[in-house]
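Entry for the shared binder. Reason: the reviewer on the internal report wants the predicted structure included alongside the sequence.
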Amino acid sequence: MGSTGEQLGVMKLSDALRRAQGLDLDLVEIAPTANPPVCKIVDFGKYRYDIAKQEKDRKSSATKLKEIKFRVNIDDHDYLTKIRHGEEFLDKGNKVRVQLQFRGREMAHQEFGMQLMDKVKHDLAGMSQVEMAPKLAGRNITMTLSPLPASRRKRRFAPVAIEEQTSVNGAEAGGSEAR
């Protein structure tokens, strides 16, 4: 294969080397087990860089564990924001650890914490499945969610879109009117 990607066909090793040297490039063996072996005329340094980059991309696609922390008395808006973040993480294929922290006298009402964890589990059910059920450990309740296959994921809490105001005059946008 030539430097621009065109097929050069079957040729002798000496002809291929001469052609590569004429272009100031290297002859790189791509598939040594093929019959005849497949070679490419490329810059070897750039070729190694591209392979390393592909390996890095392959490794970075591995699932990561993201964490969302809650408190028992979380406000509705804060709850929705954290649920949206959880959906984003799951949509990207990451696992999510949901952690609920108790402080002080909140430990006396652990049932409220379990209710909140059940609510999180229910709200993220369209995107995930429970990998580790909610479990009390010290002053925390922890639960791990893993993403569903991409074809079965359904987002319930889409990110809020910023609405553009298309008003012509300032009166519609809340300005005062002359009477």
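Summary line for the report: The chain has a mean pLDDT of 83.
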